[in-house]
## 1
Amino acid sequence: MALELTAERKQRLAALVGRYPIKAAACLPALHVVQEERGAIDAEAIEYVSRLLDIPAGRVEEVASFYTMYKRKAPGRFHIEICTNLSCSLMGAEHLREVLARELGIQPGQTTRDGKFTLSEVECLASCGTAPVLQVNGEFHEALTPDRVKALLGELRSRAAGG
Ligand code: FES
């Protein structure tokens, strides 16, 4: 099935393309817009951006696979991305990753069977001063401790149960 975007997203893409001297320069923001629609950058999304910007699909694929901000598979309802880069690691991020893995019953890169949680380990989230940090669906949670992580999971589970 060919990728179809909302009219609003098509307009945003057209504006993006017009903003750059060469179309290819709009690749990163264009992938963001397509990801909003799809939840991930799959083969159809790659093809769409390739045609939109007149660049080879292989080039778009390279860009999409290089940056962790582009998801290759749609994540669960709550996508937990924990930073384990240097500052966060020094502040106990690996232990927090273990707490998350144990509580959720999954390893980084996996989604719970009910589709509610995806756990990912990511590189620096540019919030080193408040390490250790994680993001849930792009929202930052900083200066974490094991107890705060457990409390956060409790809150997310309640939200998931509420529909
Ligand atoms: S090292 Fe974790 S936010 Fe920079």
## 2
Amino acid sequence: MREVVSHGPEDTHRLAAEILSSLPDRAVVALYGDLGSGKTCFVQGLAEAMGITEPVTSPTFTLVNEYKGGRLLTHVDLYRLTHPDEALAMGFEELIESDGITAVEWAERAEELFPAGTLRLRFRTPEDGQTRVITIDEG
Ligand SMILES: Nc1ncnc2c1ncn2[C@@H]1O[C@H](COP(=O)(O)OP(=O)(O)OP(=O)(O)O)[C@@H](O)[C@H]1O
Ligand SMILES: [Mg+2]
């Protein structure tokens, strides 16, 4: 378990690049935390580090976006789900077996569906609102 304080979006991008460099070719990254805590910002950092030039936006309405960079980036957002069964219905189990990196926002919506080896990142916005505290849980 490691805790990092990010002082701005660029810091969060840098952390994403650093984490990416230590991930295997295929990995699932589960992102937890409130609205505006920086989950999409982190995925944008992953995309940048993977050489993806397309703008990465939150797939809140589409649930999943795929980007092809040096390898595949699958970006999932479970915000709109109310029950893990809905994740199953959208093919979540197949999605997290995708090649490349699969990053899932609002992972708390489908906690029990993540495979062993999932990297979990928890985002918090402290009172001052200007920083983000990111906890990295490799367990
Ligand atoms: N240190 C920081 N890291 C990331 N984002 C930050 C930071 N400081 C301020 N911000 C701002 O906070 C916002 C984070 O938004 P982002 O869309 O990444 O949140 P989110 O966790 O994906 O929210 P949602 O649950 O709505 O999808 C952005 O507007 C960003 O500019
Ligand atoms: Mg988001």
